[in-house]
């Protein structure tokens, strides 16, 4: 049901940000169905007229593709409940259902610790990033100061720099700052990325100016305007970004891999990778561990699907 | 909101009573500059320290021989010379080339196709969108673990299904070409949902009236796609091509790490993986930085080519 919200809110938001009439929001009547068929990418020549059979074909196609898409995830989850001897039996539904694999993973390896580390790091990065990025974006969108466009361009140009590209010098910088093997080292470098600044700036550019102006005329300082007016108004975009940041940092692997080697700092992705090397043929345990790492993200996804989709949609628009 | 304004008024009262209005106006402008500086400071400093300086440092490092802790020796273009004579580096570049040239178009077509499909008003469309997007939220490490299990020669479900259908199973991750194909296929499976959403957003921006007009004029679905969808989708296509190319050149380390570890016979050792190995496996920070800088150069060239091909995502250049 989250998905249906996505469907209606998508065009609505598009209309708001881009000023085009909200296309595709009418009742799913006959005309709409025919138009839907007309952009089907060349299925049948008569799709415009005989929309019904074309739609049926497309529905079947969608169902098949959806099944192909989720099968591996389903396979991982059900296999995690199989025993050592049946994990490779090729059945989707376990014949002997067991939760021993999960118990084993938590007792054999400090997996709870890994989960906690990942949670802590992702949460702190998300909160700090949203705070700093919204401040910077507010300044770039709303305040007037010399060099504003230059600074924005400089920040924007860092968008193409991905972590793997600067991994080596980043490692050396972190070493100089004594950030290696610490929570600070896992957290601080991951806070700063231009993606969030860019998205928030675009959002702030679209906000009505009158409220702030009234507040400024009334003698409100810029901090008060930001904190009491702009921040509450940006709740939708902030929540979308929050979920997106949390997801990205929970899934982070490369930076934790090079910047830590202390087991008390191991994050869940590193934990899985090394668990897999250690228990290489015990697929039941490995898949249980993988399921544990994936479940929080799947839960987050189902709870905040709309926000994730919104943040992605916005990122593709300029 | 009105309460905020009201509170603002009461606190501002002493300021309004200040004796020198002209000075106040000056200071208001400067106050705005100061506020901007303070608002920008954390991000500007952080980006400088963790993105800007590393970028410059990466090029500087490429002229040094770095051995062990803090021993830097200037060797000029020595690392680049070594790079041009390193067959393993060129093999990794070749693999990266194949990887990008196959992955980017396949991902583009699959995502566009899915975008067109999930734009339709089909019964239960929300469920399909969710299912097709789902793999994207799973980490590449978990994805690597999962597909290693599915693609296993002996116990994997892929071979099991093939044998059940009467084919011979294949050693998917056991031969270099097949393994690279598997990495690409897995990457498409993970990323298609992300770009599907981006295409969907782009498609939903195209006014429906255009299609209605085209239909009245007797245009079939293919004509409508070619004359309306494709040109109006150009900004989105530009974005997707750019992002997926950059991601293909510099990303995927996590997946390679878990799924193939660069093997077999270096068959999936992408340039970024080879660079990682040189730096963190052998401590060759200078050499790895030289190769990294070269990779960034290639990335910039690709970006330029994409920009040219799609005319920067603008509509009006054709005239």
Strand percentage of chain A lies at under 5%
- Tell me, what's the shape of chain A? globular
Characterize the biggest β-sheet of chain A: none
Overall geometry of chain B: globular
Using DSSP, what is the number of strands of chain A? 0
Total strands of chain B: the figure is: 2
- Provide the β-strand percentage band of chain B: under 5%
Rg of chain B from C-alpha positions?
27 Å
Structural class of chain B: mainly alpha
Order of helices and strands of chain B: HHEEHHHHHHHHHHHH
The overall average pLDDT of chain B, rounded, is 87
Descriptive report:
The complex is a heterodimer of chains A (318) and B (319). Chain A is an all-alpha fold and 318 residues long. Chain A has 16 helices and no strands. Chain A is 70% helix and 0% strand. Chain A is globular, with a radius of gyration of 24 Å. With 319 residues, chain B is an all-alpha fold. Chain B is 73% helix and 3% strand. In chain B, α3 packs across α14, α4 (87-119) runs parallel beside α8 and α4 runs antiparallel to α11. The two termini of chain B are 49 Å apart. Chains A and B meet through α1, α2, α3, α5 and α6 of A and α1, α2, α4, α5 and α6 of B.
Please describe the structure with a list of short key phrases separated by commas or semicolons.
heterodimer; A: 318 residues; mainly alpha; disordered N terminus; B: 319 residues; two-stranded antiparallel ribbon; 14 helices
In short:
Residues 1-49 of chain A have low confidence and may be disordered.
């Amino acid at each position: 049901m989250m998905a249906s919200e996505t469907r209606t809110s998508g065009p609505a938001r598009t209309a708001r940000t881009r000023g085009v009439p909200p296309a595709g929001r009418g009742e799913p009547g006959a005309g709409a169905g025919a138009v839907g068929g007309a952009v089907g990418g060349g299925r049948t020549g008569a799709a415009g007229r005989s929309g019904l059979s074309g739609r049926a074909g497309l529905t079947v196609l969608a169902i098949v593709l959806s099944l192909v898409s989720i099968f591996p995830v389903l396979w991982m989850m059900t296999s995690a409940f199989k025993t050592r001897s049946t994990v490779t039996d090729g059945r989707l539904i376990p014949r002997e259902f067991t939760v021993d694999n999960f118990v084993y993973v938590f007792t054999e390896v400090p997996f709870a610790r890994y989960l906690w580390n990942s949670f802590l790091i992702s949460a702190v990065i998300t909160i700090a990033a949203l705070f700093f990025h919204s401040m910077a974006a507010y300044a770039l969108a709303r305040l007037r100061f010399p060099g504003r466009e230059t600074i924005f361009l400089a920040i924007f140009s860092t968008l193409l720099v991905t972590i793997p590209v600067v991994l080596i010098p980043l490692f050396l910088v972190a070493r100089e700052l004594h950030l290696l093997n610490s929570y600070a080292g896992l957290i601080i470098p991951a806070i700063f990325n231009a993606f969030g600044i860019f998205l928030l700036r675009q959002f702030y550019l679209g906000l009505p100016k009158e409220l702030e102006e009234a507040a400024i005329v009334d003698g409100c300082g810029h901090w008060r305007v930001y904190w009491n007016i702009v921040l509450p108004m940006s709740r939708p975009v902030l929540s979308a970004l929050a979920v997106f940041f949390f997801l990205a940092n929970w899934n982070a692997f490369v930076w934790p891999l090079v910047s830590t080697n202390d087991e008390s700092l191991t994050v869940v992705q590193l934990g899985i990778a090394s668990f897999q090397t250690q228990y290489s043929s015990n697929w039941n345990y490995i898949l249980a561990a993988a399921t544990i790492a994936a479940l929080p993200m799947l839960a987050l996804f189902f709870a905040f699907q709309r926000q994730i989709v919104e943040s992605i949609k916005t990122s593709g628009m300029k | 909101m009105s309460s905020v304004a009201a509170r603002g008024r009461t606190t501002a009262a002493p300021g309004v009573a200040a004796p020198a209005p002209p000075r106040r106006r000056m200071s208001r402008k400067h106050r705005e500059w100061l506020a901007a500086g303070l608002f920008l400071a954390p991000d500007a400093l952080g980006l400088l320290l963790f993105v800007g300086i590393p970028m410059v440092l990466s090029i500087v490092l490429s002229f040094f021989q770095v051995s062990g802790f803090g021993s830097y020796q200037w060797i000029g273009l020595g690392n680049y010379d070594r790079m041009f004579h390193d067959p393993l580096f060129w093999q990794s570049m070749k693999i990266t080339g194949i990887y990008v040239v196959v992955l980017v178009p396949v991902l583009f077509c699959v995502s566009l196709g899915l975008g067109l499909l999930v734009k339709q008003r089909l019964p239960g469309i929300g469920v399909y969108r969710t299912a097709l997007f789902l793999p994207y939220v799973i980490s590449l490490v978990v994805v690597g673990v999962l597909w290693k299990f599915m693609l296993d020669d002996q116990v994997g479900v892929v071979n099991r299904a093939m044998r059940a259908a009467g084919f011979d199973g294949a050693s998917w991750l056991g031969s270099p070409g097949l393994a690279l194909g598997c990495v690409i296929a897995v990457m498409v499976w993970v990323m298609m949902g992300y770009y599907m959403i981006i295409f969907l957003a782009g498609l939903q921006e195209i006014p429906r009236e255009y299609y209605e007009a085209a239909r009245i004029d007797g245009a079939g679905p293919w004509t409508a796609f070619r004359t309306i969808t494709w040109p109006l989708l150009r900004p989105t296509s530009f974005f997707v091509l750019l992002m997926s190319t950059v991601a293909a050149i510099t990303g995927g380390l996590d997946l390679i790490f878990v799924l193939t570890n660069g093997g077999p016979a270096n068959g999936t050792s992408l340039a970024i993986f080879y660079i990682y190995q040189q730096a963190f496996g052998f401590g060759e920070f200078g050499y790895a930085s030289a190769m990294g800088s070269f990779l960034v150069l290639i990335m910039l060239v690709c970006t330029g080519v994409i920009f040219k091909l799609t005319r920067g995502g603008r509509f009006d250049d054709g005239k």
